[in-house]
Structure formats: structure tokens, C-alpha cells
Amino acid sequence: MKSIAVLPQGTTSHEALLYLMKGEPCRPVFYKLISDVFLATARGETDYSVIPVENTIEGSVSMHMDWLIHEVDLPMQAEWIYPSVQNLIANPGEFADGKGGVDYSGIVKILSHPVAMAQCGHFIRSHAPTAELETVGSTSEAVEIVKNNPGKGWAAIGIELGAKTFGLEIIASKITDHQNNFTRFVLAGPDKLDIPRVSIGSKTSVLVTLPEDFPGALHQVLSAFAWRKLNLSRIESRPTKKKLGTYYFHIDVLEPLESVLLPAAIEEIKALGCQVRILGSYPTYTYEEEKAEVQ
Ligand SMILES: O=C(O)C(=O)C[C@]1(C(=O)O)C=C[C@@H](O)C=C1
Fold this sequence. Notes:
Blueprint: E1 3-6, H1 12-21, E2 27-30, H2 34-42, E3 48-55, H3 61-71, E4 76-83, E5 87-90, E6 109-112, H4 114-119, H5 121-127, E7 132-135, H6 139-147, E8 154-158, H7 160-165, E9 169-172, E10 182-188, E11 201-209, H8 217-226, E12 232-239, E13 247-253, H9 261-271, E14 275-285
Parallel strand pairs: 1-2, 1-3, 4-14, 6-7, 6-8
Antiparallel strand pairs: 3-10, 4-10, 5-8, 5-9, 11-13, 11-14, 12-13
Bound molecules: prephenic acid.
């Protein structure tokens, strides 16, 4: 059975993994921090890692993509999106106003993952503007800390599965600023994995480093894709971290690497003097409304 490193039980990452695998047996191995999730597979402790790479409202994209580029060599094997529905979670009854409602003025501190916290900015400003905000490694870590500190006026932002995992209460549900809040996840690891879902297409993620002092280099790189009618879904520049002002271009092409035209485009880009690294060529999956089965 394949082992998959993921953030702790009750996180969005955990629920997203359960959704992707659709009840197919796999062994989730929980790690407290996303850096430990990456390292687990890089060190061979697990077969795959679940990495959140982009969010509709507040992307964790840069830091996590930088890890895939600079810190570990783990090919991307699948990509899928999953909704992030955040709630305000507390110890049962702690903020009850005695009339069946919630007394938000009693909230002294709100804990969550920084991305989840940022997704709920409007709610926090309007309901608990004076609360101290503390960021932790994941939404479920926030829920666990709140559980262990009853009576102090602390609340967590997390998903329903997080509240259930620790037996806490949702005191305000669906508090994200925008209801269409999705996170894009990547499964990274050395080998391909059979996924029990129907993919909606394929992507190849390519990292291109331009030669220095070559006017129009980016234009020529993009032309190599354009005249072959290769569809791009992302182009993003990231610092090489080697020299100030030098960048990689992270380009996602909506085509598998084994297609006829993509290898030719890559050869053309190399012939321009660019360095090309393939971060992965993988199936992509969309979200279909259904609840992940919790194992
Ligand atoms: O803390 C969690 O629940 C996570 O799965 C992490 C994470 C992220 O890193 O972006 C994933 C999705 C949520 O939107 C918020 C946080």
C-alpha cells in the first residue's frame, strides 16, 4: 500500500487526499509542518507528498513551489483542486451568549494556518477585530491547541473534519471571504500512481532559465509554444535565488510530455540557450461535489 505524507489529520490537505483516492487503500502519514511533508518523501520515508500549491484567495503557491524547485527533487504526479470551507471552531459552549447565539466579544485569540487566516480576513475584522491572531503549522494544529486550552477565549479557523477530529464545535460556518474558495494540490513523488478518478486532462510543468543578455528571449520561448498551438495555463517568474535579478519561468503546458509537439518545443527552447527542467508531467483532476469519505 502506498504511503502518502500529508499535513495532520483533519486538515484540508488530509480531506483533499481522501477525496482524490476515493476510498482506494493508501496509508496517510501525518506530519506537523509542510516542510516535513516534503522531506518525508525526499528522504524515502513515504512514497508521495501532498502539497497545497495555490489557493483562490490567498496562494501558498510561492513558498511551496519554491520547495519543489530548490529543496527537493520530487516530480509532480497528479494535480487536483479541492474546496477549502473554513469555520470558526471553539470548545463547546465557550462563547455561548446565553440566548442560543455566539458572543464574539469573548474571543481573545484566533489561531490558524496563515493561508486559512488570510481567507477569512473580512470575518475576523467584522466579528473579532481586537482578537490576537496566531499562525500555526496547519488548521488542525490550531484546533488541537484550542482544545487543549479551554476557557481562555481562544478559537481556531479550520474545516469541519478538523472540528470533528478533536470533538470541538463550529460556532460560525463558511466564514471565508469568498464562497468559491478552492485549493490546488499536487501529489509529488518518484513514481506514477494509479488514481481512481477520471482526469480532465494532462499538464507538463516546465522550468525555463533564460540565457543572460539575450534580448527578446522570453518572447522566443513563448513563440516555441505558440506556433505549435500548445496551450499554456500558467507562466510565472520566480527568483533563481542565485543572483539578484535572475529568474526562472515556471510554465504549465496543457499537454503530456509524451505528446508529439511538446518535446520539439522543449528542444527548440534549449537550442536558444535556455536551461529547461521538467518538474512533472501529470494528469489533472477537477472537483465534483461529493464529501470525502473519512477513513
Ligand atoms: O492547514 C490546512 O488545513 C492545510 O491543509 C494547509 C493549507 C495551505 O497550506 O494552503 C491548505 C488549504 C487551506 O486552504 C489552508 C491551508
